[in-house]
Structures are given as structure tokens and as C-alpha cells.
């Protein structure tokens, strides 16, 4: 097992609405990202993916409030830190964050090099501008970005180029964790591929030590990250390696998500798309018991009264790879029973 | 409207298509001019859409999809070329004729939140459809019955919608209400411009399912405009690939996606992340 870069333990954060109601958007979330690994977070809109990202980087500005739990980055606990301290001490060096419309964050009146100077000088005011220029040139060169971009204004760049530039700027200090929140969903497929290629290169070259990638696009997640967490109504419902999660989901909600994947590949047209009925619960007063029970076709009577926590399952592979064992899910029904029902359905679907 | 014999339009593919052409175009072009600069958004495109078909128009942002949609709907003037509706040249020169045309062609847009008049209740939205179809004189009970049927078709309950405003519904519900409108109007052609891009993957399946049911129920022709090539492959019979205002490739869905011939189509299919084949990063585009 590699060194843990980011460890999250029972993190809970809430929004306080203007009517003074508490909405727990991240509810007892725990996971670990090891050095050199990437983890993906999937789920419907409104399930808490982006709130989790903001919580991880300590962005606690009202209405978002920290409640409990630990965020440990490379052995250093940053939970409960003042957001202004976080900005000085954590952002850039420990954590870098890329939102979906990151490209709109560039001030159109300044040149790209200026932004890089800003980032570096904020952390080390003594750096000389020549050193910064050299560093930026070198970094841009290895990432296949043209060096003359540094002397251009943001409006001169295309959307995909801007997004790649922003990623290069925000990771210039080689952060330990990169949090990418839908970094490519506003781009067309070709630019998306270039962005992903660049992020993968950065991981390989060690400019970022670990990554959290948030998107609702599952085929993308499968191609980018090592493992996947599925979130539902503020809680994790299943975690496992990307391959296991896409082809062999266990939790009924993950199963529903994976069944809605559409890719331009042979065989796609023969499968009937199934949708998960209903809508996610209102988190102002979440239902008792399993939060997915109302929409789950396998739900039993007990599901609505017992709250289940994440349970581990899976076995060690013959090569001694323990990662196979690190699967967990949040459901009352045993794994083999769920899988049997899925198999039955698949057969039924084929014969009809 | 009398159904006329199909005109002899060049069509090298789809010999096995049985339906008559409902909408076709020859040399359709749109040029935007500003300050002496000419910008060709849609460049001499030919197409032929047949009854009962589900056709996708796929292209990246800026390829001219939406301009073409606007021309098909008659919302933007055509710079050059002709559009034929039911075999005859389309005439929408007066407001009356335009309204008549819109009885046959309707649209669902990308953003359900800005598709409704916020001052009108849902009841008004649905009653409007009946009026447009010339059913305004029906007794009230009959109208309610039709509306309730339309709502249940898209899994909405009319009893829960009545006296509400569209903005009180979620995005997915609003988009379903849009489909209920189409169900009431029963147009010959439905233009769906990225109807699922603002909705997450789970509700997407519901919307697609409803569109397919709608087609089976009413035999309408659906033109599906999207940038998502996987989605287009899943849903359509035929696909047109659009690049910089031109159709670079068209044909049956299987043929276009699984054995593309145009470089642009190859690139599009290659660039989409897949789950059974590895994502190919080797190709370098000097962009």
C-alpha cells in the first residue's frame, strides 16, 4: 500500500439555509487516496459531489459550514482551519482546485505569465521573475503547451487551450492533491481528450501526486481514474476499482448509473437503457434508513428503518493484490443476492 | 394537408427507407454578414428526412447545427437554397402560413428553464396546444381527458401539475412536460435540439425512452440534434455528421459510427471515451 496523500475520515459538512435549516450535503464521508493514484467521484446532480470538493479544500464560506471529521493531507490535518489561512497555506502547494469553468477565471487584461507570477509570489515572495519565467517555460514545454502562450492574453486562446493553461497555472507548485471538478465537460471531445492527456502526463511526471476527479460522465471516469466512489444524497454508497465499478457494480444505485452509460461502440444499441425512477430525497429532512430505498426496486421492508454503514467485501486476488479487497457498499442486501437478481434480469432482458 | 408524391430528390442512400420524404433541403445555406465580413454558418447542405425516421445531426460547437435548426423551424431566413416540406417548396411568407407550418413541425430545446413563459400556468401551456390543433371548441371534460392522457404518457400526474407554474418543476419534469406538449400537438416532425444536455445521465434515459415511445405512438419524424455521438448512435436510424457548416458524412447509424469514412467522423468517434475499447491517446492533433 502506497503512502496516503489524502485521507478523509467521517467528513461532515452542512449548508445553513436562510431559514436556518441544516442541510448535510456531505455526510460522514471517508476515503483515502494514495500517492500516484487517482480517485473518481460519480453521482447525480445535487448528490454532493461539488460540495465534497469544496469541503476538501477547506472552502468554508457561508452558507457552507464545517461540522466534523478529518481531512489529512500528507500527514497534516487541515480540518477546521480558517478559510483565509487555507488560501495562504494550503491552496497551490497542498491542494489545487479546477472548477468546470476554470477558463473564465482568467482576468482578460493580464498576460498568462502574470498569473503564474501571482501564484508563485503568493507563496514565496522572494522568487525572482526570471526564475519564475524559466520554470513556467519548462513546465509548459513538457506539457506540450506552446511557450508563447505565456506572453498572450486569455482572449487570444481557444477554450480548450485556456482550460489546459489554467490547469498548468494552478499546478505550477506541484500540489499533493489535484481536485478536478468537471474540468472537461464544457469542452468538445477533442479538447476534452487533450485536457485528460495533460492531466495524465502531469500524474506520470509527478507534478501532481494524487487526484480527485469529479464528473457525472462515467466512461470518462473509467478512462481517467484508478478507483471510483459513487455518491448518493450526501453519502458514499459504493467504492471500488474503476473496472469493478463499471462492469460489476453491486449497490442498486451504482447499478442504475452504470446502466445509463451510452458509448459509440458496437452492441450499445442492443441494450435497453433503464432509468432510475423518482428523484433524490430532499436533504433538509432525509428519509430514515437507506436514503435510496424509495427508488430501489430491490428494497425490502427493513431498508426503510435500518441505516446501514459502508461494509467491506471482495477478496484478495491470486497475485496478492489487496486492492480487490477494498470494495465497500452501503446496502442491507448481501452482495451475492444483489448479483443474482442482476443476472436474472440480464437473462430476462435477453430472452424477451 | 394532402400528401403528395415524393419529388425526385437525389438520394444515394436509404433505398430501403419506406416513408415518404417529409422534409428535405437542397443547397441550404446561411451566411451571416457583418461589417463586410462574410461568415458561412451553413454551407450548401442537402438532406432528405423521411416519415417515421429518427435522424441525428451530430457536430461540435460552432458547426452550424443550431443555425440549421433555426432555418428548418423558419425562425431564421435562408440565404440560399430551398427547403421542401411534404414534397412541395416551403412557403412561410405570411404569419398565417408560418403558423400552419408550425402545426406540422415542433421543437424541444436544450434549456427547459427558458422554454416556458413564466407568467403562464401549466394548464395554459397545455390548453394552448389543443387550441393550436383546432380542438379549442371541445367540451371541457374532453380537453381535461386529453391533457391527463398526455401527462400520464410522460409519467407526470396532471392533478399535481394543475394551477402550478412551469418553474416549480425540476429540469427533468419540465423537459417531460415539453414532451407532453408534443404528444398533444402530434406534429409531423419534431426537432429536438440537445434535449438532454442539461439533464443528468439517469433522467436522460427517461427522456430518450419517451421520445422513442412518442415516435412509435404517432409515427412522427424526429430530428435529433446533439454533440454526443454515443447518444446519437444509440437513438437514431440515420446520422448526419456536420463539420463547419457542411455534412461530411451521412448514412445509417451503424455504418457511420462503426465504419466511418470521413476523417472528421473518425476523429469524433475516436475521441469519445469508451468502456470496451481503450481510449486512444496516440493520435496527436496539432491544435
Please tell me about this protein's structure:
The complex is a heterodimer of chains A (352) and B (287). With 352 residues, chain A is an alpha/beta fold. Chain A is built from 10 helices and 12 strands. In chain A, helix 3 (112-123) crosses helix 4 and helix 5 packs parallel to helix 6 (189-205). The mean pLDDT of chain A is 88. Chain B has a domain at 21-117 and 172-269: P-loop containing nucleotide triphosphate hydrolases (Rossmann fold, 3-Layer(aba) Sandwich). Chain B has helices at residues 65-73, 95-104, 122-132, 140-153, 158-161, 171-185, 201-218, 229-235, 253-258, 263-271; strands at residues 21-34, 37-50, 54-58, 80-85, 88-89, 105-108, 189-193, 221-226, 238-243, 246-252. In chain B, helix 3 runs parallel beside helix 6 (171-185), helix 4 (140-153) crosses helix 6 and helix 6 (171-185) runs parallel beside helix 7 (201-218). The radius of gyration of chain B is 20 Å and the shape is globular. The model of chain B is unreliable at 1-16 (pLDDT under 50).
Write the layout of secondary structure elements.
The complex is a heterodimer of chains A (352) and B (287).
Chain A: E1 4-16, E2 22-34, E3 38-42, H1 49-56, E4 64-73, E5 76-77, H2 83-89, E6 95-98, H3 112-123, H4 129-142, H5 159-170, E7 177-181, H6 189-205, E8 210-214, H7 218-224, E9 227-232, E10 235-241, H8 242-247, H9 252-258, E11 311-313, E12 327-329, H10 335-351
Parallel strand pairs in A: 3-8, 3-9, 6-7, 7-8
Antiparallel strand pairs in A: 1-2, 1-4, 4-5, 9-10, 10-12, 11-12
Helix pairs in contact in A: 3-4, 5-6
Chain B: E1 21-34, E2 37-50, E3 54-58, H1 65-73, E4 80-85, E5 88-89, H2 95-104, E6 105-108, H3 122-132, H4 140-153, H5 158-161, H6 171-185, E7 189-193, H7 201-218, E8 221-226, H8 229-235, E9 238-243, E10 246-252, H9 253-258, H10 263-271
Parallel strand pairs in B: 3-8, 3-9, 6-7, 7-8
Antiparallel strand pairs in B: 1-2, 1-4, 4-5, 9-10
Helix pairs in contact in B: 3-6, 4-6, 6-7
